[in-house]
Design a protein that fits this description.
DUF3866; DUF3866 family protein; Rossmann fold; DUF952; 3 domains; alpha/beta; 5-stranded mixed barrel
């Protein structure tokens, strides 16, 4: 049901790309209205692309259902028409995609993937994302935080900020114009473009499906990374399956089908009063653990120092890790990727938009934003994979076990891969230092040097990225192998002779 009202614009307020806020005095409604009675002044929102540009004194027709129910994200009166100042007919133009189909405000747009589009030939047979990282999040509020992590990691590694597109699905707001954050991120240069898919509309590009939207981001926009999330206004019912974020799992499936690398951003909170959302939200465990059937990287934020995350304590950290372990291998195809959050709070404070999720700011609860930023940090690391030869020192007994089972699953001396999350490795100039620090007592016996082909690992879906060796994310960056090392990816195994040169015979 819709609550209809007529009113008169008394003031115009803040505007951003595609939207303008208004103050409207209600002038008419049904007899004996339950709420929003005549004489009430309400905050309203208009989309000029749909209804024209309202001015002070204009009579407007409003829908007030969300306002009357006191909803948060959608709590505006929405301008449905300006009856006395109808916008001019649009000029003839290409495009026959209808969004918000068969509603009174259905909109016809040019789809990037349709026949009349200049990009149709590019997308006609496009079928591959080429391993591009795609970060998937449940909530729209994760978008600026993921971007903060991407940009902070690129800066720390001495690389330019990646070019990023936002693909907006239709589980929340349908008009992209509703998002003030999206407009501000575009203005700040943090986003290359937005692509609205399904019934959503108002992006820089329009696409029929999530699949064609992802392909457009890759092949038309040419971006490095994509972030997928619904628009503002997540819908939930307090049931296991009745929430719009379930589509995050389907998004990861789409990424995998198209040959991208899915990165799942966990929804985490340390302040939500609802038990189902405290720690790791059931939205994440359901969408990623039950719906997403293809292997993706589930990023788990980790803190080695309590000051990294205000309000983050050891109990919360353990709970988040345990929840993530339940939705990753061996229970599902997903890979658990621990990512330190050190330094990310500083990056989040520099975001050019106001950070808020479920009414809570960064100061109220930093954990949801840090979790999203950690996913961004990981996606940025995936953009610079290690190639060629990497080295790993192993105990002879650990290597013998690997030969027996077909894969090497030790992170470093006395630490299994399952406990750490990755296998430590070294570049040429790092081997001797690691050996002295970790294997100094075994020179000449008990250890072997593995020569590993990083390209072979990548071909098998195992990520090898350079990461700081220190928990505070400073210092030299080492290759970390996020997965077991198949014995077939090991080119050579040599008894350790105390130095890389002595072991390999280099220079002799």
């Amino acid at each position: 049901m819709i609550i209809w009202r007529d009113g008169v614009v008394t003031a115009t307020g803040t505007s951003w790309r595609g939207a303008v806020e208004l103050r409207v005095e209600i002038t008419a409604g049904p007899a004996a209205p339950v709420s929003v009675a005549p004489g009430t002044v309400v905050k309203a929102l208009a989309y000029p692309e749909l209804v024209g540009t309202p001015r002070v004194g204009d009579r407007v027709s409003l829908t007030c259902s969300a306002l009357a129910r006191g909803l948060g994200t959608g709590g505006y009166a929405m301008v449905a028409a300006i009856p006395d100042a109808l916008p001019a007919d649009p000029p003839p133009s290409p495009g026959h995609l209808v969004k918000a189909r068969y509603t009174p405000l259905q909109s016809m747009v040019l789809g990037v993937d349709e026949q009349e589009s200049d990009s149709h030939a590019v997308l006609a047979d496009a079928d591959d994302l080429g391993g591009m990282p795609v970060v998937v999040a449940d909530l729209h509020s994760a978008l600026p935080a993921v971007l903060a992590g991407l940009r902070a990691e690129a800066a720390a590694a001495g690389r330019p900020a990646p070019r990023v597109a936002y693909v907006m699905t239709d589980g929340g707001a349908l008009p992209a114009w509703f998002s003030r954050s999206l407009a501000q991120l575009r203005e700040a240069g943090w986003l290359e473009a937005s692509v609205t898919v399904g019934q959503a509309f108002g992006g820089d590009l329009e696409a029929v499906t999530l699949h064609s939207g992802l392909l457009a981001a890759k092949h038309v926009l040419g971006v490095d990374v994509v972030i997928v999330a619904q628009g503002p206004g997540n819908l939930g019912t307090g049931t296991r399956w009745g929430f719009s974020g379930v589509a995050a799992g389907e998004a990861l499936n789409a990424v995998a089908v198209l040959g991208g690398r899915g990165v799942a951003s966990l929804r985490v909170s340390n302040a939500d009063a609802r038990g189902r959302h405290r720690g790791v939200s059931h939205h994440s465990t359901t969408a990623y653990g039950r719906v997403a059937l293809a292997a993706s990287d589930v990023v788990v934020p980790v803190s080695h120092h309590r000051h990294d995350v205000p309000g983050w304590d050891a109990d919360l950290g353990r709970y988040v890790m345990l929840s993530a372990q339940e939705i990753t291998a061996p229970h599902t195809p997903h890979r658990l990727v621990p990512v330190p959050v050190a330094g990310l709070e500083v990056a989040l404070r520099d975001v050019p938009v106001r950070l808020s999720t479920m009414g809570r700011t960064l100061q109220d609860d930093a954990t949801p934003f840090l979790a999203a930023a950690a996913a961004g940090r990981w996606a940025a690391r995936l953009l610079a994979p290690v190639t060629g030869t990497i080295w790993h020192l192993a105990l002879e007994s650990d290597w013998a076990r690997a030969v027996e089972h077909g894969s090497y699953e030790t992170s470093t001396r006395d630490c299994p891969l399952a406990e750490v999350g990755f296998v430590h490795a070294s570049l040429d100039h790092q081997v001797d230092g690691v050996a002295a620090a970790v294997y100094g007592d075994l020179a000449g016996s008990g250890a072997v040097l593995l020569e590993i082909d990083a390209d072979a690992l990548a071909a098998g879906g195992v990520a090898v990225v350079r990461e700081p060796g220190s928990p505070d994310q400073s210092g030299d960056r080492f290759p970390h192998v996020y997965g077991a090392v198949p014995v077939t990816a090991v080119r050579a195994v040599r008894p350790w002779r105390g130095t890389l040169a002595a072991t390999t015979g280099a220079g002799s």
